[in-house]
Amino acid sequence: MTRNPGTDLRVDWFETIHINTPATERRAASLPARRSLKKDHQAAWLLNAIRCIDLTTLAGGDTPDRVARLCAKARQPVAPDLLAAMGVGGLTTGAVCVYPTMVAAAKRALGNSGVPVASVATGFPAGLMPLDLRLAEIRYAVDQGADEIDIVITRAHVLRADWAALYDELRAMREACGAAKMKAILATGDLKSLENVAKASHVAMQAGADFIKTSTGKEGVNATLPVSLVMCRAIRDYGAQTDHVVGFKPAGGLRTAKDALNWQVLMAEELGRGWLRPDLFRIGASSLLGDIERQISHHVTGRYAGAHRQAIA
Ligand SMILES: O=C[C@H](O)COP(=O)(O)O
């Protein structure tokens, strides 16, 4: 798929945006009821969610061994007998997501599986480091073999409405990413208003982000449906303005199969079914896969899988 090349900074495209918060919250709350996903249909959507998971470990205690176990799970996210019973083969997660010093271990463990490695960078999670060090961290991760870079923005640029500063740092980050895809984490829980979320989304896309992502998983409030709705509409508006396509990644706090279904309904309702694929939609999650596997096991066998079937995540 062609990458989003970005545009010049066009503040006029978003400066008058006004978000009706109660209406956004109402629409978000109505989403879960908009599609009734039962039985086989629901299992198919859960399998699709797995295809779109960025299986994540971002903990101080990460080690190459722990990352290797995560990668084994990414290569084979569901027990083969369950998949065989559903007539599905070759299922992997969308990517694994790790800290830069774990990229090499992840690449080794993933081998020729085709599962991409995403690395966080730019002083994740707060991003409060000098820009040259943040750019150097991107280059390090790319050099280690990262296929995708999940960057964090300087929240202060948004809070001060300094769109030029935000655009310039994102442009520099996009350049440092080179051939690696750039996923721009807005840390929406820090941005104070839905207007700010919408405006930061536009600036990130104008600067060439391949994906916009809600959260690091470390903010007080992480992915929510209202914030995600605002970001999806920004993606739609940017697409209408430029014809460029940008992906969406909710992340942080998504833990249940129900969450995976709700966010897919959001994508289908706001952007269309065509967006439910890993090059346009990812779910960043460290502990979602276990619940999805439990539901799939229940679908196939009529009972919930024991914990032994769920090695990690
Ligand atoms: O990008 C992914 C997030 O860090 C994962 O957050 P989580 O641990 O709440 O699933």
From TrEMBL:
Catalytic reactions of this protein: 2-deoxy-D-ribose 5-phosphate = D-glyceraldehyde 3-phosphate + acetaldehyde
GO molecular function ontology, one term from the record: deoxyribose-phosphate aldolase activity
A UniProt-annotated Pfam family: DeoC
Enzyme Commission identifier(s): 4.1.2.4
UniProt-listed InterPro entries: Aldolase_TIM (IPR013785), DeoC (IPR011343), DeoC/FbaB/LacD_aldolase (IPR002915)
Metabolic or biological pathway: Carbohydrate degradation; 2-deoxy-D-ribose 1-phosphate degradation; D-glyceraldehyde 3-phosphate and acetaldehyde from 2-deoxy-alpha-D-ribose 1-phosphate: step 2/2
Family (UniProt): Belongs to the DeoC/FbaB aldolase family. DeoC type 2 subfamily.
Protein name listed in UniProt: Deoxyribose-phosphate aldolase
